[in-house]
Amino acid sequence: MDMISELPDTVLLHMMDLMEPKQAVQTCLLSKRWKNLCKRLTNLKFTFSPVKSFENFASWILNTRDHSYSLHNLSIHFWTDTRCLGKLVKYALLHNIQHLKIRILSCFGSTSDYIPLLFSSHSLTSLSISINRFMQPLRVVLPNTLHLPSIKSLHLHRVTFTASDNHSAEPFSMCHVLHNLKLQYCALHDDAQVLCISNSTLFSLTIIRQQASQIVLSIPSVSSLTFRVLIIMNSSPHAIFLLLEK
Question: What are the F-box domain coordinates in residue numbering (predicted)?
Fold first, then answer.
């Protein structure tokens, strides 16, 4: 007797969520019941693999998954940006993704159009994004304001913040439940001069090698603050002014 197949769907789905996605999908060969279960996976993780293999598997997810189920967790570690990756991220955003992690090692050219969509998601509670552009100093340019009302944990690596009319970038003021923020190798866009981090719910802030001439903090609830800041010197000296506002 197949005792595992006698378990409830919720238990089997939890077991499958602990597997690598490809292994979980392979269970569909066991029986019709397993075939239907693998279409309802809520946690997907894609790690480094050949582009064709990644695209084939991502296409299977997009075309076969039961679209009536939300997608809770999506983690993508890949060599380069692809059109298929963009479709996968858009699919996740349309299916109430809660936890999203994207790490692209070498993006050739401009980043796909899914980037702005990431920063207007109402379902995301945690987001980690790192997209390196191959042989280019440019970073991913973010909107002026990040509209992430449910975000609690945010990790941004190699992104550029844009400023409003007063040459000050204030991207996090609309993140009303943000608890943890980590910025690595970020910069200001064009004529922006000041990075302002204003958030009343922030508990933990880590800034590593932020390129900004002035950083203004208004974070009254913070309990953990870590700074490792790099200043790139041009023709004239620059200094960082760190202003803490209560």
Answer: 1-51
